[in-house]
Specification:
about 180 residues; alpha+beta; 6-stranded mixed β-sheet; 3 helices; 6 strands
Length: about 180
């Protein structure tokens, strides 16, 4: 059983759909009331609590995600400059902005908040997750965490998975003709 897709989907669809649905659910549960809001600076999807000065980022993790052993999970895929900026903000922030490269100065500014990652790992029958505070990146991968809060595993009931009307494209018959 695949939770988010079928065997005929591209291999990345279950993970992408799972990530997107998790982000949407987090925002649906929080962003309708103060002090929560959403923002996507430079394509980094944030769910923000301005009062607590905290932002949550949803990402897929590797097979060590939610493993309670003393191991460090990694993000499943390498991340870009915005993720690096958020991890750096957790460490010390930009004390000397004049020392940043031109591309770093031009990136959308992130608020001076604490950035937490809601890491997910999907298997055909379970969802594993943790809420973690990153400490260090290497070559685009978050590889070390200061705090890891392992959450209970979820075994979704397929009969309770709900899809909205916007999850399916309308039926249509394309007009196919040879040109030329």
């Amino acid at each position: 059983m695949l939770m988010f897709g079928t065997d005929n989907d591209a291999p990345f669809i279950p993970g992408t759909t799972g990530w997107g649905r998790t982000l949407r659910t987090l925002r649906d549960l929080t962003c309708h009331k103060e002090p929560w809001r959403k923002d996507d600076p430079g394509g980094l999807s944030l769910t923000i609590n301005d009062r607590r000065r905290v932002a949550i980022i949803v990402a897929t993790g590797n097979e060590m995600t939610a493993n309670p052993a003393n191991v460090q999970p990694h993000t499943k895929y390498p991340k870009g400059a915005q993720t690096a900026a958020a991890v750096e903000a957790n460490a010390i922030g930009d004390l000397f902005p004049e020392t940043l490269s031109e591309s770093e100065r031009k990136r959308p500014q992130l608020p001076d908040y604490a950035y937490w990652w809601f890491l997910l790992r999907f298997t055909p029958s379970k969802i594993f997750s943790e809420l973690s505070f990153p400490h260090r990146m290497e070559q685009g991968w978050i590889v070390e965490w200061k705090v890891r809060i392992i959450l209970p595993d979820i075994e979704p009931d397929p009969s309770k998975l709900k899809f909205g009307a916007d999850d399916f494209a309308p039926d249509f018959d394309p007009d196919v003709r040879r040109i030329g």
